[in-house]
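During the practical work, I selected for study one protein's amino acid sequence and its backbone structure tokens, as given directly below:
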Amino acid sequence: MCGIAGYFGNSKNELEHLKKYGIDSIKHRGPDNHGIMHWEDQNCLFLHTRLAIRDLSQTGAQPMTSKDGRYTIVYNGELYNTETVKEKFLGSQYSLRGSADTEVILESFAKHGIKILKGLNGIFAFALRDNLSNQIYLFRDPVGVKPLYYIYKNNHFAFSSEMKTLLSSNLTEKNININAAKCHVRFMWSPGEETIVSDIKKLLPGHGIIINNKKEMKKIHYKTFEPSLEKVIGKETDIIDECKKKIEKAVKRQLVSDVPVGFFLSGGVDSSAIVSISKNILKEKLECFTIHDDELNEKSKDGFTGDYKYAKIMADYLDVNLNTMSTKKTISQDLEKMIYFMDEPNGDPACLNTYYIAEHAKKMGISVLLGGTGADDIFTGYRRHTAVKLDDYINYIPKKLRGYLSKSSSFLDTRNANQRRVKKYLDNIQNDEHQRIINYFNWLEKDIVSNLFIDKSTQYDGEIYSSINTLPNETKKLDKMLHIERLHFLADHNLNYSDKMGMAHGVEIRVPYLDHDLVEFALKAPHRLLQKKYSNKWLLKESMKDYIPKSIMNRPKTGFGVPLREWLSTELLDLKNDLLSNDQLKKDGIFDPISVKKLIKDDANGYIDGTYSIFAIMCINLWIRKFV
């Protein structure tokens, strides 16, 4: 796992600036080594910082050039089917210089070009230069585990694993993308290619870019995971057994490493299954990590319990080492670090959990962590998936009665966790199917968000609507929601912060549940097995019951959260008052101070659940301070 960056354009000054400062901007991603390739006659530059995971020798160093000298690559990622790719595209007898997966991809591309992409099962973002035709290629993995940003402006093309590299250049004017900012307040993430900076784009999962020798850009789409209209037909026991085999194979693939590997262990089904399977494969004492925070309990403002109790049960059951850490540190200072390493103004404080765990793991000499991210998104693990099932009954309720139910939600107190959840559901029952699906990802209603900004336009969420509207008409409602989970909630949010918070400390975070073969299987799994009655993740739980004790299997669902509502009235109170003061909001020139003040008041009085959106506004303003 590494950091990559590069430039191809007409400005020698921009290239020299990137050459001078680019490595520093991504050195945390690759603390073990770095490399530079500068084609002076073509004004082209590739940068690479290396986190050595496989083939620790110099044969794995980058930038790396193919045997025939035609192609040069900078690569960030891991290929989990290296031997299969080598066999298919190079042949088993092909002689490589080392054992790095980078070289397998490079030599395969040199022989077969972009046709190799669909055969790659891994997490990656990489750039290649055709040294003969003077063309640049960029590709990102189909799930979107690895980030890749770019600027294309006036025949200048620059790219990087992180936005901060591009923000330091003179290619961007750092104009705030108001539509993206509104999405950050509403969802905590910006869907699709848009970022908080108008000039900087995300390369979409499963997409590529080709820049020819005239500096003209062409976008290509090589693979993404779409909902399957045809579901698996077969015996229930056979489908469960196949699911078990797919998960076991995915975990085994992702244990490959030449450096120590550790594990997230929350004590939930997802992470517990990975640790249990790994213990069975490795036959050794494993190092596991969890958050221990006494402030998380059902009576707290946030309404959910911590994971430690269950993580301890699972650790004792498997006889693994459980390393614990608390979120009760210098939170306000760590929040600023979070924003710096995130690049984007992500308003999810759960990022800090990943940040602390990665920090602790690295101090123990562990550079790879396996976690359960993605299981909820492909196997239906969230409350909103249950809500979608309940939606089947909404059309039986007369429209007038739905209106009364929706209005009655105003009597609910959002300071109570259960009432908060009921209100969110009732507020949504009058909307059409697509609007309901999208609103389940809301932290605040669309129009309320628009009113928080000086720019009051409500036309800012077209990208997420497009993601649903382009699906076939016969696509089931649950499949539409899971499509949004994969395409946006994962790629634009969970995977993004997992990568950034891990790489802040030079730690690679792997996600076995997003193995490509497993994702393909889940897409075709029948809904009756994904959800049985109102039991979410039924298929996953049944397939993993040999690995997990009943005390874990039947535990209540909790999020990977922090006590944000408590923090905003205690540890983060001074920072909140500073960032959201009238003077500060007027200075930033984005938010309407009067509307923000009303949001804070309504949230405090329990009229509206605005906590996460308030925090998102704080993060946007912190981001502006840091980068603008």
Summary: The chain has a mean pLDDT of 93. The chain is about 45% helix and 15% strand. The longest helix spans residues 477-503. The first strand starts at residue 2 and ends at 8.
